[in-house]
Amino acid sequence: MYFKVKVEQCARDSKITSIYEGTNAIQALDLFGRKIRMKKGAALAALLDNMKAAVEEAKGIADLSHCADELEKSITALEYLTTELLAATDTDDSFLAYSWASPYLEIVGDVVMGWMLIWQAVIAAGKAGNSNGDETFYAAKILTAKFYIHSLLPMVYGKILAIRKNDRSLLQMTDALYTKS
After folding, report:
1. Number of compact structural domains in the chain
2. Active-site annotation holder among 21, 70, 79, 135
3. Fewer CB in 10 Å around end: N or C, the chain?
4. Is 21 marked active-site?
5. What is the distance between the alpha carbons of residues 26 and 168, in angstroms, rounded to a whole number?
6. For 134, phi and psi rounded to 5 degrees?
């Protein structure tokens, strides 16, 4: 849609941001509260198994083996974090565990993106060198996976460390903090 006045576009874009933030939180709570528990964790287990299979396949490709090792570490970190957070939901820290749903969603998304990229890189590595004119495309797939896994994926560890600090400040916030006296 073409906007004749930039103010209209700015207003529309601002509204989308507020909708996105609310939707993002809802999706995070749904992932943490429902999806990872589906069928007693079978859905998450299947996803993790698919990721691990792609990692194993990538380990067999010399150019991608280091990426596979890095992605494997992030998958393991995600598994441990998930176990820790799920255990916390069965304690008095349940509210605190749910408060980390949004960063948890980001961590899951980042690890899934690493998996998707290495999966594509494995396919590209198998097709590279076929002299079919797509060499640049395949090289870009491999380089994109390498860049993401080495440069962007490691940010999940900062988010994981922040969650593991188990900061309880949120639990100390009462309604009195938000009302005028």
Report:
1. 1
2. 21
3. C
4. yes
5. 22
6. -105, 20
